Amino acid sequence: xxxxxxxWTTFQRRMNGSVDFYVDWESYKKGFGNLEGEFWLGNxxxxxxxxxxxxxxxxxxxxYEGDRRFAEYTTFAVADESDDYRVTIDGxxxxxxxxxxxxxRPISFSRNAFDILEI
Length: 119
Fold this sequence. Notes:
The chain is of the alpha+beta class. It has a domain of 83 residues: Gamma Fibrinogen, Chain A, domain 1. The chain is 13% helix and 28% strand. The protein has a 3-stranded antiparallel sheet with strand order 1-3-2. A 3-stranded antiparallel sheet has the order 4-5-6. The model has no long low-confidence stretch (mean pLDDT 84). It holds the Pfam family Fibrinogen_C. Keywords: Coiled coil, Disulfide bond, Glycoprotein, Secreted, Signal. This is Fibrinogen C-terminal domain-containing protein.
């Protein structure tokens, strides 16, 4: 990704609903979809990426009129499966609003396929 100087890893892309994101635990663990279209990279990969170094998390959104906004978090880590891939996130800046840090509970993946956090 070349956004904001480049060096980003895209781990989720959703555009047109061509991929079902209401899938089971194992699918989120290993990843699903197509890297050329909609996909989820995989929780195991996210854990490995964030366990070894400090990472910044960035969300870029574009509406149907082409207006773009972003949210960036200076602290981002994903725990391993034994901790239900708990997400640590903090340090917001951006134009999209801070929907993640303001949550009043920790963010974890649920083993119920239809209880995945959506914001």
